[in-house]
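worker-3 :: picked Cytochrome b5 heme-binding domain-containing protein
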Amino acid sequence: VGQTGQSVQKHCHRSDQWLVIDRKVYNITQWAKRHPGGIRVISHFAGEDATEAFVAFHLDPNFVRKFLKPLLIGELAPTEPSQDHGKNAVLVQDFQALRDRVESEGLLRARPLFFSLYLGHILLLEALALGLLWVWGTSWSITLLCSLMLATSQAQAGWLQHDYGHLSVCKKSGWNHKLHKFVIGHLKGASANWWNHRHFQHHAKPNIFRKDPDINSLHVFVLGDKQPVEYGIKKLKYMPYHHQHQYFFLIGPPLIIPVFFNIQIFRTMFSQRDWVDLAWSMSFYLRFFCCYYPFFGFFGSVALISFVRFLESHWFVWVTQMSHLPMEMDHERQQDWLTMQLSATCNIEQSTFNDWFSGHLNFQIEHHLFPTMPRHNYHLVAPLVRALCEKHGVPYQVKTLQKGMTDVVRSLKKSGDLWLDAYLHK
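worker-3 :: tokens ->
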């Protein structure tokens, strides 16, 4: 007997999880704990049709289907639609046709030369920073220039590991996976598994409360239009939220990487007993202190890496948040893939500088629709995505770099004002 969409939706609890892929119903309750992408990202689709997310995330869907066979418990009834009720069937079909075209034109295939040159420019920046100290010594001006070069290399390595992370999905024996470990571990001192499990949740459910960790503000900020009102009605005041657009500059960009991420990374590696990632991370710090201890000593080297992280953190926050923070945030609504991603993302105008500065994440829309697409192809698919959005009346937003950054502050102020109004009057 075929399953109905309503019967599948009932199995959305931590101890009882079903999902649908290509009309087949799977019980993932036990297997979710072994999911390579982490238990949370797959659990976010419990009780839903996960076909679009399944196709988007996996480089080789046929390989993954081998693991799904033992989990199969049935199919949707013939009278049931091929997507969740409420989704636009024509839009889903048109987006699938676009994805088929993208695959047939080879836009999901990476160019090794592009990434080799990109990695080379990161290594060159690090070598030049060290060379400056050997030749010119540790004057304040040279030390500052060295710090700027190291912060640049760290930021660019961050964009590169982001690429390798997406391109290594279900390819853990491949070169992309090994390069991901090298770049995020040895060049940045972080954890590949921590990043994967966190970042894939963001892509699976962007700007969805309780599912996207990037908008889990730990009561420090209230975000969007709905959360501030909810906090205000409940008289929650963990912080003076009507001033959050001001204190954001003190605890947002300066602290996210050197404090919050660093604590979270090491806590995760130790709690998960992830000794491989810990070894990669330690290799970064060993190399860093071996290189800079002769110039600055131990405490001077600690001060240098702290300042580099401080600079990198500002870069990271502005680039990532200008395309997400001002966008719509909501609780789960089970939208189709294109609508969900477009409501949570916007693009920043293309230019040589913007491409380099953001690691091509100025094409956030294309990146979110096709997370395994190599960045050098975003500009090729962008006109096709824009045309599809125009056909179906889905907003496709493109901003200048300046507007993208100022909108971050404006959105925080707007949310803070909504909180204050609800707190005082509702």
